[in-house]
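>> Question from a student workshop board

For tomorrow's exercise we were told to take the sequence and the ligand below, predict the bound structure, and bring the output to class. My setup keeps failing. Could a helper post the expected result so I can at least see what it should look like? The ligand is protoporphyrin IX containing FE.
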Amino acid sequence: LRQTRKRVYPLPLPPGPRPLPFLGNALQLDTKRPWLTYTAWGKTYGNLIYSNVLGIDMIIINSETVARELLGKRSAIYSDRPVIRTNELIGVDFNTGLLPYGETLQQHRKIYHQVLRAEACVSYKEMYSRQANQLVINLLNTTVADDLQKQIQVYSASLIMAVTYGHVAHGDKDPFLARADELFGIVMRLIPAEKAAMFTAFPFLEWLPAWCLGGDYALMGRSRELSQQLFNEPFDEVKAQMVQGTASQSLVADFLSQADDNTDEDTMKAVALTGYLAGMETIASVFHSFVLAMVLYPDVQARARAEINHVVKHDQVPSIGDRASLPYLDAILLEVLRWHPPVPLGIPHATTQDDVYDGYFIPKGSKSNVLRLPALSRDENTFPDASRFDPSRHLTIDGQLKESIVNSFIFGHGRRICPGRWFAENVVWAAMATILSVVHIDHSRDPHGHRIEVKPEYTGGVAM
Ligand code: HEM
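>> Workshop helper replied:
Here is what the output should look like for this input. Compare the format with yours to find the bug.
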């Protein structure tokens, strides 16, 4: 245990629950549902809370204003990440989201900026449309809910695959998708959803050893092997295609053609694979929420379809170029993100220097979390009748999009803000537009023609 003697600070720490010697607040945590502990603490201690767990300083940020000030404006010192050693054991420590703040991270982020910034993302519009069309064809052949989930997963995986490596996946039998699927399966077994949420919520778990992964060394080995294959093979394929002149447009091809002598290939491999893994889960999550909303709110679906029919000619499907003329569809996208934030716990940040906020001392090395995304997005003061799915809350009286505050918390903050946010929005938008213009989403029916009610339930984890 790290805290062997009481430390003295020049100013008071933010308010928080009373710690026990050595254990700090460890016994007060609800490890299965961490956000409940933080919600309860928030009610007692307010928007900035200090807690100490096993000697690690933890700051919990319960307000968007404080998050923007600390993680945003002061991001020069709030952009480190807690080290989570288990990631090395399963071979996923290449992941951008886990890198400490420093040179390697900056190289990663430079590449994302090159290929995924807002303007660059628009250039993938053909790909968005092609994949969205394929999704609709697959959905039309789907009869049961399990298939729907599978189709959504295959869709997000194939799309990211196409955009990242220009690789056309052939359904879930595609070797790359199959490997990625196996890797996911293993990671889920080693770190099941509630454990993943716990790692995210409680960064003090940084030094947990292999036993917390169930001690299954064979699975860990297989996981590392798969990670290495996914890391190298698709990238090398694009490289070979570039030499033969057969590569299609993709992030990796764009990168290789823009690369200079100083460009490090391993960095690009890590970026590409992170993009693939980060995008697949999150986009699938948004998409499930979209389908759910369309089933539960048929009036919203009807209004969106009416908007599309009004703006786009009847024999055409909207493309990204029509986005500005379809504000209601964009409002649906924002509402889906607000209604069920895909990454509800965010990813914790860590401080690299001591800091002072509002008269309180924040020690260097503190792990800060904005753990209440669902609470922010369900805040009745900002979003009245917040549990209702209501896209019109994002529109002005004359039907134009309002300045959105949803984006300011859903994708994180400061120098660690999600670099895939524009890409994710385009991808989901294209799929929503295509689906709504050709498919009607409704409840399934039982063999007697009675509709089967939907019971909305979400799995936990880093992405819901
Ligand atoms: C709707 C979909 C998505 C949501 C809601 C989402 C949300 C987030 C959040 C909350 C973070 C943490 C930010 C922080 O620490 O402050 C993050 C980080 C990240 N996201 Fe996303 N994301 C989405 C899609 C994507 C996609 C499609 C990609 C890649 C193509 C991507 C790549 C990343 C990466 C690389 C990071 C780590 C950044 C860093 O640590 O510097 N995300 N995302």
